[in-house]
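Ticket #4471: structure export looks truncated?
Reporter: QA, pipeline team
Priority: medium

Steps to reproduce: submit the single chain below to the structure queue and open the exported record.
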Amino acid sequence: MLQKIRYFLFLVAVLVVIVVAFQNHHAVDIEILTFSGRYPLTLLLLSTSVVSFILGSIMTVWRSRKRERTKARQQSLKDQQSLKETSVKETKTSSASRTDSADPARSPLET
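Actual output as written to the record:
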C-alpha cells in the first residue's frame, strides 16, 4: 500500500514538473561558470529535474546499502557474541564433567 502511494506521489511530481516546464517555454540567458547562452526555460527546468532525480536515486541507493552493511555487521557481532557465550557454557559443562570423572576417590569399577 505504501509503495502505491509513493508511485502515485512520484507520478504527480513528474506531471507537475512537465506542466510547469512546458508552460514556461520562453528563452532565458543562462550563465554557469564559463558556460553561457540563451536557451528555453523548458530545457533548464527539465534538465535540472533529471539531474536532481539521478542524484537523489544515487544517494538513496548509497544510504540503503550503508544501512544493510551496518545491519549485517551488527548481526555478525551478535552471532559472534552468542558463539562465545555458547563455548563458555560448553567449557564449564565439560570441565565439570571432567572433574567428576577424575575423582580419585572413585575406583574405575564404580562408574
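Status: closed, not a bug. The export was complete when the record was re-opened. Leaving a note from the reviewer for reference: The helical segments are 2-23, 41-101.
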